[in-house]
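The records we work with from here on pair a chain with its fold. Here is one such record, which you should read through line by line:
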Amino acid sequence: MREDIRRADSVVGRYRVIREIGRGAMGIVYLAEDTELGRKVALKFLPPSFTTDPSANSRLRREAQAASACDHPGLATIYEIGHVDDQLFIAMAYYDGETLRARLDRGALSAEDAARIGLSLAEALAAAHRAGIVHRDLKPGNVMLVDGRVKVVDFGIATSASSDAIMTRTATAMGGAIGTPLYLAPELLGGASADQRSDIWAFGVTFYEMLTGTVPFRGDTVTATLLAIAHDPLVPARTRQPSVPAGLATIADRALTKLPEDRLQSFDDIVTMLSQWVNQQRNPLPPRSRWSRSVLAATVMAAVIVSVASGWVWWTSRERDRARTESLPEIQRLLDAGQAVAAFELARDAKRYIPADLIWQELDPLLSRDVSIDTDPAGARVSYRPYGGGDGEWTEIGVSPVAHAAVPNSYLEWKAELPGRRPAIDAMAFPGSPDSTVHFDMRVPEDGEGPEGMVYATTSREPYLLLIPGLEHLPPVTLQDFWIDRFEVTNRQFKRFVDAGGYADQKYWREPFVTGSGTLAFADAVRQFTDTTGRPGPASWEFGAYPDGEDDYPVRGVSWFEAAAYAAFAGRDLPTLYHWTLAAATWSSTYVVPKSNFAGRGPVTVGATGAMHRFGTFDLAGNVKEWCRNRADGARRYILGGAWDEPVYMFNDADARSPFERRDNFGFRTVKYTSREALATLDREVIAFEARDYKTETPASDSVFTAYRGAYTYDPSPLNARVDKTDGSSPDWVVEHVSYGAAYGGERVPALLFLPRRTEPPFQAVVYFPGSSALQSRSSLLINPRSFDWILKSGRAVIHPIYKSTFERWDEVTTDYPSRSAAFRDHVLMWSKDVSRTVDYLESRTDIRSDALAYMGLSWGGAMGPVFVAVEPRFKTAIFVAAGFYQQRSLPEVDALHFAPRVRVPSLMLDGKYDFFYPTATAQEPMFQLLGAPSRDKRRQVYDTGHNIPRPAMIKETADWLDRYLGPVAR
């Protein structure tokens, strides 16, 4: 901030500064005079970091323009946005009054004053929301009281850089003074975008403070306040202050519901509720001078009601007890068994009787997720059922558009129905972001105008990344909607091509027949494509026909050329890798593969397995492998999905074969593109496969590894450790929020140290390293102890450091995928030093046994674990969960390939057979084989799951392992 602006009488454009009137984290406000119009204004200068941020500037301009265009007497007027010396400033109307903050500092308001001010404030915010404006920093300091009226100031300015910016400013200021964090909605702590409901939360905090004289959630530090907002139950307004009228308390309490979807949903509703209360005070019912018949009747009726109510109270008390003693354990059991839908339904019933139970804070993120759905056209009835539901019943969630509906946190089958339109069917797990909306296209008429046997695939219009190990290097592309076969092409369908003379008609064979020695003529090429009797047809046929009874089996034994020719005959194409994987949703292997035709005796009728993929397609996993359009190199074409006689991981892995090859398990399906504009890019000449083959790679020699190891050393330095906060709310453990000096850059490492209650110190301890979701999260409040709570219940301590790039220490790294960059190398070194520095800290504590330390890594932490454990000799054992080698390359000094053989401590690996991220043969097995522990001291357990391990199995295996190698815990 320029120093001369701070002096009175300095000039900023046409404004003469009078004095400073306020300052905060987002800038400084000055009282000034408009020398041209002769009026007082408020000038706000924003920090230089915002001035140099183009996206922040554009947001500021849009929001300021919108706020100034919203004509409501309760909203402050913005005159202009200007610059002086490259500093952005806002010229706003100046109001001569006091802030609501100043008024509240003198104590709570009367109910009447709180209702009057709350109503004015709600009316102003309702007008803003109708104009599409979200305040994002509503608090008493931004509400002016002018002649008994409300003026909302700093509209859309104070937090225009997004809620993430708020979190950065507040969560990193550990131990600092408390300001804006008091009014942050819980969902913003998890990185969600601010919306109307977060403004309603801030209003609720403000209104609660007006009624009771205190805010509902407060801690001694910023961190403690954020923890209280995220986890502490609300103390109802009337509990805090019994004199608060029930009608007003209800408004405050309902605005402060943790889940946005359960909160009051609009300021129009709040305006209605406050108006009704104010009118009732102005026009009370007239008193009765004597008893009347109606009063007598009412009295009798009241007695009846009391009697019925007594029975109701007894019944609901019994149901509450049943919910706690029976339903909650059963919900936990169902979750552990992977029965998410059944757990969700039982929880929904239990919540009717114990809605405020603290257990929901732990269970809700596991049980449900928030979804929004729209359809084109609107008005469709939207339903879901468990994946693989067969003929099971559908649960309707509403008529589109559906906003913020709670559904089971699971992979589900979906259906949208609209009279006169073809139903839209899909299978998916929705994104967790509250801003995500999934679209169903309902424009296809019911009478079947679409291509026969095909379903309509609706793309998101967002760039699509090809999620196949070895192909992640490809850039994301924008796809257009397309049609795709519901099932694989069948024998019956292919017979039409054969009977129509397709093998003799050159117009269908559009690709040159290139071999290693040249290009074949058409006649010479098709002469190779015969059945077992030498007649034109698939290799599995005989005498120009398929076996009896196999009309609806997938055609098999066809080359890529035959598949492409059939597609041309049918007026269609083969799918590109992008279109095939979008429909297959290979990341859903946990759910799809177990239902698919793998490990069978042969192919089955198309659709018979019930293994549904996206858009209502079937059997992209197993049955027969399916040819795709793209080349892998000059001699091979891609063929995906795996077949009945192949390992299940082939659904996730890419395969490529000669286009002349005609194996018995080769089949295909077709697509019909609605737009061909992007196909030139998608059908590029060659899509190179770059996955690693660890069978051909050799770990570094001891001398070379010694050089690599040197990069991980650091000079000893004081820890300067401290305990910032202690949380004893759990009956099973105490959480200490600690921090200590990092081994680089003068930084500090915050950590959550969980200490068990059921045993006495000194404790055995586990250092935990999380999955990659920690790289996208912005608040450690989202850490859920359920990931390791059984370790605590066994009597061991767990420490969860906030590693560089995660939670409040976030930076430019948002993915765990390795790269050859120096930046990735440097981050691996920092992560490893964070692990070792954590061990330094544990050694400094007298309540921790430094001779009984274990490492446990999940997913990202499992894949990187060999690096950390190899360079940290103080671990006695290691557990790698849902882990394997990465398919991407990094610089050798941080490549787990070279570190795994140096992991000499007992090592346990727990993996899923259908893991998409770390495939069994190419990632899991190579890592396990290279781990350097003696064979008697290493174990790999594989489960029929994907990138997850069944909780009961994980508890048993890890507890047994820790007992064996750290020693049992004395109770």
User: Anything to note?
Assistant: The chain has 28 helices and 34 strands. The first strand starts at residue 11 and ends at 12.
